[in-house]
Write a structure and sequence with these properties.
Layout lengths: L6 E3 L4 H9 L6 E2 L14 H21 L8 E11 L2 E2 L2 E2 L2 H11 L3 E11 L5 E12 L4 H10 L5 E2 L12 E5 L2 H5 L3 H10 L8 H7 L2
Parallel strand pairs: 1-2, 1-3
Antiparallel strand pairs: 3-4, 3-6, 5-8, 6-7, 7-9
Length: 211
Amino acid sequence: MLGRPKFVLASGSPRRLALLNQAGIEPDALRPADVDETPRRGELPRACANRLARAKADAALKSVQLDDELRGAFILAADTVVAVGRRILPKANLVDEAAQCLRLLSGRNHRVYTAICVVTPKEAFRQRLIETRVRFKRLSEEDIQAYIGSGEWRGKAGGYAVQGIAGSFVVKMVGSYSNVVGLPLYESTTLLGGEGFPIRFGWLNAAATGV
């Protein structure tokens, strides 16, 4: 797009892309980073999210530096961690993992942390950590098995996707909803805007197309 700096999303997540589009921002490119997301031994949830967001931003920057079309772009990376106390829940890919997560979350409070990392055209790094507290209803074994059958949990931190069926499990939420989906929009747009990215550039176009 002419008239604004290039923008790269360092993620292949359809949820993060949809959230950015909701805010009127269309990335020029997606550069998902191949980063090992395994928490380090004894690593706390906040530290894990911050480390991984920075690692994803670093990897995306290396990719962008090799691309004449994208060099000097703004980059946005993010990592979401779901935790019960100090325990980090996995991004569930197996049925057993998802079931274990859901049983742990049943009737309890948990926290969702998303670290966002912006790289400016001058290659300065800006980072924020956002926390949302969530309480689930008590889940019956029938709830758990039926939800696993839906397949919505695959690849999701904590074994659930709040924007789908699992939204009906939420008794209470304190903080950013979009954070739980995977990208806190207020903080992301504020961070980008504060570094000089014209976040309103696409708004008139969105109005014209009726999006």
